[in-house]
Write a structure and sequence with these properties.
This protein is an alpha/beta fold and 256 residues long. 23% of the residues lie in helices and 18% in strands.
């Protein structure tokens, strides 16, 4: 990785570019917040941000500590509730939702519940929170997580949040909204999408300085690789400068 930017800066910039103007994004604490605020300031000024605790459409001055921070309702169109935020997703109003997890499989299913057998787990994780709602109901999910063979797992210990389930049409057949599902996966090594028919994870771009071989060796399942995989665009100076304004105390983005 080049010394010109950090991994968190690369992840934030890459995720922000996936977001689109005049869409609605459901964001959580940390990198999702930063990605949403960065997108608004760089290329998506009319994107509506929804926070899990109920802040809808705020003009956030600097990075909040959490989704319950009072800054998430600064000049908002509504200071509502978690129920209202989740109801917006259920009603089909949320275009993008951010997620993370302890494990992900080739179909974008996520585990945030247990590592090991459910009855006697090695590690008990925080659980779903709102993640199942976001993954089930938002039109497109953006998944941000570290990549290694344990996290990109051949078989999940538990499915907390559905991706494309068993692939193909299985998500729709299970009753989840047509056309919804994981859209992009962003790791410290690469960005991925999903092959339209099989719904298997597919390499979309490799980050600067990373080889395709490294990406494949850091996964517990086979990743589809198309011809001519491009390199992810590195952060621009404009984006890096804006990140410093969004996170001036360095909660997620290191101070320069």
């Amino acid at each position: 990785m080049t010394a010109d930017y950090t991994t968190n800066e690369l992840l934030a910039c890459t995720a922000s570019r996936v977001l689109e103007d005049r869409k609605v994004a459901f964001v959580g604490t940390g990198l999702p917040m930063i990605a949403g605020l960065l997108a608004q300031r760089i290329h998506a000024p009319n994107m509506l941000i929804v926070f899990e605790a109920g802040g809808i459409g705020p003009q956030v001055p600097v990075l909040p500590i959490s989704v319950g921070d009072s800054r998430t309702v600064y000049r908002a169109i509504a200071a509502s509730s978690m129920h209202e935020a989740m109801s917006m997703a259920q009603s089909g109003y949320i275009d993008f939702g951010f997620l993370g997890g302890a494990q992900i499989d080739m179909f974008g299913n996520l585990n945030t519940t247990v590592l090991g057998p459910h009855e006697n787990p090695k590690v008990r994780l925080p659980g779903s929170g709102g993640a199942n709602d976001v993954g089930s109901l938002c039109h497109r999910s953006i998944l941000i997580m570290r990549q290694d063979k344990r996290k990109f797992a051949g078989k999940l210990d538990f499915i907390t949040t559905p991706g494309y389930l068993r692939g193909g049409n299985s998500r729709y057949e299970a009753g989840l909204p047509a056309g919804s599902g994981p859209f992009r996966v962003i790791s410290q090594l690469a960005m991925f999408d999903f092959e339209p028919v099989s719904k298997r994870m597919r390499l979309y771009s490799v980050h600067p300085g990373v080889e395709v071989k490294t990406v494949l060796e850091s996964s517990g399942f086979d990743i589809l690789v198309p011809d001519g995989v491009p390199t992810t665009e590195p952060p621009t100076k404009k984006e890096l400068d804006m990140l410093q304004l969004i996170d001036p105390v360095g909660m997620v983005i290191a101070k320069r």
